[in-house]
């Protein structure tokens, strides 16, 4: 029935199916709690999760077989018997907290120690590690392990979810969960060139939610399965870890987490970001240039000419756009990052001349590049085939969009090569930034290339972030004000790469909803003032939905052509006189408000259950709200108010009334979007 389920969820579902609907609750043998979460363990080391709402503890799950060791032959270790509970005070990079150790033993000779740590600074967030020790006389064959396998109970109002894995069909990260929903959320490769992600899965009801994931400092090939049934929504952290456990030996899981919350996924992602920042994996200091608006030459496609760029750029500058991005088509080949002779016959001199032209127009130049990809027939592969990432049978990893092959990011010569490329782009040619592009750069497969002498094949998986660190450090050593943009086309961003990027775009959104859900996600994962770009507005609903970018505090971006069309498939983006009026209006609004510099208030609205969809930003003493619906005629609620305010529609230039904390509702009508600001009484619009 659930072929994609991982072992831990299958065991959980099997147990749930056998449980009577009115089963008596086991008596807890151990309990640990803070102000938001409680975990209770029964005599068999099964646990249940409770969430504190006001003064009431709400059981979110039943007693589930939450932690498990999967043995050879399809067996699961246990059953276990509770043997003790120890609590100690701790203090580390996360501040002060309490550590609990729950111990149990099984008849098959395994000792199980569940260690759970709750920190004062992060109520509702539990960090977990489980240790299994073979106390028997026979070696045990182990297939893997699972942590935090729980089923959030059904209340009749449904579920929504946030899923951190990447998929070739580029489907939404935010999805409703109904019976039959089944997503494995594997953090490795889910396609030849689609993989990696943020190791979190979150599922919530209108009143409460539960999320699980891992907090390791490098990517891990875990699965975070989410399964919907008629009894609830099941989650887990599941890891394949084949090994033999000798007598006396022990297996320790990764550090995983379990958290509870109200509202949607935003609180989970925000807390995760803060905790990982404690551990040294936070986003870098923001560059002012990261917030500037963007014109990209991709509207002309790969056949773009230098004359077309020079011709459209003055129009972009006149409209108020600040960046000119030279996209795919300037290079000799994928992997050969030198100017193509038919467009740049003088080579480096022509690139420098184009950079000067852009800067003379008052704009900043950024150059597109797709590292870690090399085309068959390129000089790079001819001279350095040793750089290839290879699978267990020597096969290369494909990059489909460019018909290219993946290079290994954990191979020293590959790293030194990309540093030389970045030195040429930023140092020699004078570009102020790079647009790093491609679905293949979010995650890679394990590398078995014998030339690389990896200690483990997963060195490539865990070393990808160090590759991006080398790029980031090289660029900023040359130009501290440069902007490194990473666009993992359609992937769910790999959190471990965030410390090495200055700007993140919506990465080829297929709908305006994707622009907004990605914006909310990255405002949590990179910080509330994250420099998130809405990507080319031409990719939004109708090709002109600036409201979905401006309203959520994203940076405006466009790929219009002017005065002519693009080439081949890159057509229908010409800036007509009718479009120019719209573009000019929205680019001015963006520049006037600069909402990306504000604090995104993602905790105020639930992206799944609240209708209409709503977002809020706090900036300069005002709250800015954005509401979205195909068509809406009814009340909206302005949350987060601290005083009486006049409500102003800053797109159409009209006042809509007054609101206050005790009377925060307005009746409105709109199509597509309504963008408003709440101006404290006494301030001017």
Structural class: alpha+beta
- Tally of helical segments: 10
What name goes with the CATH superfamily of the largest domain? alpha-galactosidase from lactobacil brevis
Helix content: 10-25%
Stretches where pLDDT is under 50 for at least 5 consecutive residues are none
Largest sheet features: 10 strands, antiparallel
As for the number of domains, it is 3
Shape: globular
Using only CA atoms, what is the Rg?
A: 26 Å
Share of β-strand residues: 25-35%
InterPro entries: Aldolase_TIM (IPR013785), Alpha-glycosidase_related (IPR050985), GH (IPR017853), Glyco_hydro_36 (IPR002252)
Signal peptide: 1-23
Keywords: Glycosidase, Hydrolase, Signal
Protein name: Alpha-galactosidase
Question: How would you portray this structure in words?
Answer:
With 685 residues, this protein is an alpha+beta fold. It has 3 domains: 7-278, Beta-galactosidase, Chain A, domain 5 (Distorted Sandwich), CATH 2.70.98.60; 291-506 and 554-575, Aldolase class I (TIM Barrel, Alpha-Beta Barrel), CATH 3.20.20; 613-680, Golgi alpha-mannosidase II (Immunoglobulin-like, Sandwich). The chain has 10 helices and 39 strands. Strands 7, 8, 9, 10, 12, 13, 15, 16, 19 and 20 form a 10-stranded antiparallel β-sheet that branches. The chain has an 8-stranded parallel β-sheet with strand order 30-29-25-22-21-33-32-31. It has a 6-stranded antiparallel β-sheet with strand order 6-5-11-18-17-14, covered by helices on one side. Strand 15 (197-204) and strand 16 form a beta hairpin. Helix 2 packs parallel to helix 8 (512-525). The radius of gyration is 26 Å and the shape is globular. The model has no long low-confidence stretch (mean pLDDT 95). Pfam families: Melibiase (PF02065).
């Amino acid at each position: 029935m659930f072929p994609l389920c991982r072992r831990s969820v299958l065991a959980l579902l099997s147990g749930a199916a056998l449980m009577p609907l009115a089963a008596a609750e086991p008596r807890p043998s151990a309990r640990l709690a803070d102000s938001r979460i409680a975990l209770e363990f029964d005599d068999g080391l099964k646990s249940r999760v409770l969430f504190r709402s006001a003064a009431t503890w709400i059981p979110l799950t039943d007693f589930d077989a939450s932690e498990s060791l999967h043995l050879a032959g399809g067996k699961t270790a246990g059953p276990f018997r509770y043997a003790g509970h120890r609590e100690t005070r701790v203090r580390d990079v996360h501040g002060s907290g309490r550590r609990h150790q729950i111990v149990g033993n099984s008849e098959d000779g395994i000792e199980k120690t569940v260690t759970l740590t709750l920190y004062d600074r992060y109520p509702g967030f539990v960090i977990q590690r489980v240790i299994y020790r073979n106390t028997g006389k026979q070696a045990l064959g182990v297939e893997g392990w699972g942590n935090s396998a729980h089923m959030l109970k059904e209340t009749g109002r449904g579920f929504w979810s946030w899923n951190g894995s990447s998929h070739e069909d580029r489907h939404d990260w935010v999805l409703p969960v109904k019976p039959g929903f089944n997503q494995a959320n594997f953090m490795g490769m889910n396609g030849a060139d689609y993989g990696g992600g943020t190791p979190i899965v979150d599922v919530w009801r209108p009143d409460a939610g539960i999320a699980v994931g891992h907090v390791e400092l490098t990517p891990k090939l875990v699965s975070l399965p989410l399964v919907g049934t008629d009894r609830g929504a099941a989650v887990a952290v599941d890891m394949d870890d084949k090994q033999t456990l000798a007598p006396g030996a022990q297996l320790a899981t990764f550090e995983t987490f379990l958290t509870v919350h109200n509202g949607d996924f935003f609180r989970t992602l925000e807390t995760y970001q803060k905790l990982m920042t404690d551990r040294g994996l936070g986003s870098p200091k923001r560059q002012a240039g990261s917030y500037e608006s963007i014109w990209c030459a991709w509207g002309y496609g790969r056949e773009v000419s230098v004359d077309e760029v020079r011709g459209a750029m003055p129009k972009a500058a006149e409209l108020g756009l600040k960046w000119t991005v030279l996209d795919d088509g300037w290079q000799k080949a994928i992997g050969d990052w030198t100017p193509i002779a038919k467009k740049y016959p003088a080579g480096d001199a022509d690139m420098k001349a184009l950079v000067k032209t852009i800067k003379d127009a008052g704009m900043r130049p950024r150059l597109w590049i797709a590292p870690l990809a090399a085309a068959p027939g390129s000089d790079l592969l001819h001279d350095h085939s040793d750089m290839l990432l290879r699978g267990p049978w020597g096969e290369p990893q494909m990059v489909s969009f460019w018909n290219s092959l993946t290079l290994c990011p954990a191979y020293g010569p590959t790293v030194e090569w990309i540093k030389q490329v970045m030195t040429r782009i930023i140092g020699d040619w004078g570009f102020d930034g790079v647009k790093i592009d491609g679905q293949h750069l979010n995650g890679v497969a394990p590398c078995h290339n014998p030339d690389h002498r990896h200690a483990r094949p997963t060195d490539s998986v865990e070393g990808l972030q160090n590759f991006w660190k080398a790029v980031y450090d090289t660029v900023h050593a040359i130009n501290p004000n440069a902007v490194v943009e990473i666009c993992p086309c359609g992937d769910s961003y790999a959190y471990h790469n965030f410390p090495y990027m200055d700007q993140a775009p919506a990465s080829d959104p297929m709908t305006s909803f994707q622009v907004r859900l990605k914006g909310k996600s990255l405002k949590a994962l990179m910080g509330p003032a994250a420099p998130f770009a809405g990507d080319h507005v031409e990719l939004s609903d109708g090709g002109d939905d600036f409201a979905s970018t401006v309203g959520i505090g994203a940076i405006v971006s466009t790929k219009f052509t002017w005065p002519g069309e693009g080439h081949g498939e890159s057509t229908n983006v010409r800036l007509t006189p009718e479009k120019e009026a719209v573009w000019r209006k929205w680019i001015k609004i963006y520049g006037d408000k600069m909402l990306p510099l504000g604090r995104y208030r993602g905790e105020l609205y639930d992206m799944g259950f609240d209708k209409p969809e709503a977002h809020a930003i706090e900036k300069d003493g005002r709250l800015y709200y954005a509401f979205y619906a195909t068509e809406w005629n009814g009340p909206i609620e302005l949350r987060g108010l601290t005083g009486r305010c006049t409500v102003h529609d800053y797109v159409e230039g009209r006042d809509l009334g007054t609101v206050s904390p005790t009377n925060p509702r307005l009746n409105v009508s709109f199509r597509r979007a309504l963008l408003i600001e709440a101006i404290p009484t006494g301030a001017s619009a």
